[in-house]
Amino acid sequence: MDISTDTLVERVDKLIHVHEVAPEWGSPRLSVTPVSMAIQALAAETAALEDAVREIAAEVQKLADRDTSHPD
Q1: Residue 49 belongs to a domain
Q2: What's the angle, vertex CA 27, arms to CA 24 and CA 29, rounded to 5?
Q3: How many CB atoms lie within 10 A of CB 65?
Q4: How many domains in the chain?
């Protein structure tokens, strides 16, 4: 995992591409997109979501480790 000054939200947004343009031909969300193309796109989106979940889990783990190492 790279060290970044971006916030967790910014890092996750980059991973899942939340600022993409509206769906166009080739988008898995359009009924005119061929099934094989839609599956490929959905697989890529799933991989991006997996990366985002790992990023969030790592951040939560760091917070948990920090919290248990400094008891009140």
Answers
A1: yes
A2: 105
A3: 10
A4: 1
Ordered DSSP codes for 10-32? HHHHHHHTTTPPPP-TT-TTSTT
Residue 55, CA atoms < 13 Å, CB-side half-sphere? 21
The verdict on residue 50 lying in a domain is yes
**pLDDT tens across 13-70, in order?**
888 876 666 777 778 888 888 999 999 989 988 999 999 999 999 999 999 998 887 6
For 58, the token pair is: 């790592």
CB within 8 Å of 45: residues ≥ 6 apart: 16, 28
Beta carbons of 23 and 29 less than 8 angstroms apart? yes
Q: Do residues 14 and 6 touch, judged by C-beta distance below 8 A?
A: yes
State which residues form the domain around 64. Answer: 8-18+30-69
